[in-house]
Known about the structure:
Layout: E1 6-16, E2 19-24, E3 27-33, E4 48-53, E5 63-70, E6 73-76, H1 81-91, E7 101-108, E8 111-119, E9 122-131, E10 133-135, E11 138-141, H2 147-161, E12 165-172, E13 179-182, H3 188-199, E14 203-211, E15 216-221
Parallel strand pairs: 3-5, 9-12, 11-13, 12-14
Antiparallel strand pairs: 1-2, 1-4, 2-3, 4-5, 5-6, 7-8, 8-9, 10-11, 14-15
Amino acid sequence: MRYQNITKGTFLARPNRFIAHVLVDGETVVCHVKNTGRCAELLRPGATVYLEKSRNPARKTAWDLVAVEKGDLLINMDAQAPNRVFAEWAAEGKFLPEVEAIRPEYRYGASRLDFALTTPQGLHLVEVKGVTLEEGGHARFPDAPTERGVRHLHTLMRAVEQGHRATVFFVVQMDNVLDFAPNDETHPAFGEALRQAASAGVQVLAYSCHVTPEEVTMDRPVPVLL
């Protein structure tokens, strides 16, 4: 997936989870943060960030914050990017070779999952999670407690029990990570549910991405440590 009209800036502050103040060409601009997670290890005063200029002149904020530099890493932090990247990748047959249809926002029971892929072998349900937390080259999820994420894992387990295939797919929004693991320190219930899901037959995959300020593309599989 590609962005348009990218501009480099310096992060100043985040008054709330929806907006940030960024210095661009000597002027402080208010921008929309496309990630409602904490991202406290990323959005630090002085960090280099990348903004996309909105093409909607009626918007209250003219900019979206989409990426940030953390040391030598460039991390995409657009919460919408993982689903878009996965959809493009799956449409090319990179996830499953014989995909007949890809349905986003698929209602299954009381939950809404990110994707349902129709194949000759039947329905394959996919929940995509974007990963922006990195510690010493190790990718972790979540960066804050996510009861919604736990519910999604239980939904995938029920789908497997009912004869479907199911995958939880972690899109690591950066290059060059060593591995992926659940962040048990932040939310032990999610890690427990993820291990339970894997034991129940839910496929657990993680892929890193090649990230530039203008583009995010799926790159390679990352070892999953449960």
